[in-house]
Amino acid sequence: MFKNERQLQIEWGDCDPADIVFYPRYFAFFDASTGALFEAMGYTLRHIRDELKDVGFPMVDTRSQFFKPSKFGDKVVIKSEITEVGRASFGIRHQLFNDGNLAVECTEKRVWACHNAEGVLKAKPIPDDIRAKMLSHG
After folding, report:
1. What is the pTM of this model?
2. How far is it between the farthest Cα atoms of the chain?
3. SS3 of 131, please?
4. pLDDT digits (tens, 9 = 90+) for 30-57
5. Which of 2, 8, 107, 114 could staple 138 via S-S, CB 3.0–4.6 A?
6. Which CATH number is 20's domain given?
7. Cβ distance 67 to 23 under 8 Å?
């Protein structure tokens, strides 16, 4: 299934008074990594919203395990991959590595969404071309 990798450096504002990443910041890192994964597939959120007229892919479940803290100035690598593709939902795994060691692992379940005629957010089948790209070995 499709994979992507990105690097980032831990910023001062990512850290708590103990000089380690404040745990909610990891979820922001992983959300940005999901966006980067779709961009690597050739589908920006702007394209999804403007061209496809869909909302995007809201989160319906997320879980993380923390193995090693990261600190201000650390350079980390986040590896993201699609793990499952359903009719309207899909799974992603993010692994954050610090100095080559797995520091945090996160799984997400997201749903492809649009607004129905009444303006209510609703799941919708993942478009065929995007599904094919998700299932590819990018």
Report:
1. 0.93
2. 50
3. helix
4. 999 999 999 999 999 999 999 999 999 9
5. 2
6. 3.10.129.10
7. no
